[in-house]
Amino acid sequence: MSLNNNPQKLEKKGKVAFKNGNYHEASQLFLKAREAYLASEENLAAAEMANNQCVALLQSGDAQAALDVVNGTEKIFADAGDKHRHALALGNKAAALEASGSLDEAAEAYQTSATILREIGENDLHTSVMQSLSAVQLRQGRQMQALATMRSGLENIQHPNPKQRVVRKLLQIPFSFMNHK
Asked: Model-level pTM?
């Protein structure tokens, strides 16, 4: 099997290109890997490559292409019962929606992703998605909800790092004022 048909080698090369900041090249390699996985009827691996390609496209500034390529992958993972990759695909879709200006849809996808991540005990990923959701809510002018979302995202961290501890303390301030009315 040549490099052009070997999806694992294409995937590996794509990851190297991505790590080196060559996002366009990474996107093309992930596309070829996805096509090779589809040709061998490995649909979950193909969906994974679509998600990798989405992230590379987002990094290269092509939000619409990222959204086009990731759309539907969340259903593939959900149908397969793969909650982890389902949640990650929703997060990638949310990032693409956010980058393309569809903030309401992005917030909804981030929220669903966060709910799944919390259900499966992925606390660090849950926190990351909640931070992204909070940023979208700020862009929507929903400041109090953004603060509540950020606070909620941090409460499940068992061993917060110093930055997370400071943010937790800072987030207590507006809520303490609201509780003393």
From this structure: 0.84
How far, rounded to the nearest angstrom, does the alpha carbon of residue 153 sit from its chain's CA centroid?
15
pLDDT at 144: 78
Which contiguous run of DSSP H or E holds residue 19? helix 7-19
**In the 3-class helix/strand/coil scheme, how is 54-113 assigned residue by residue?**
HHHHHHCCCHHHHHHHHCCHHHHHHHCCCHHHHHHHHHHHHHHHHHCCCHHHHHHHHHHH
DSSP line for 118-171: HHTT-HHHHHHHHHHHHHHHHHTT-HHHHHHHHHHHHTT-SS--HHHHHHHHHH
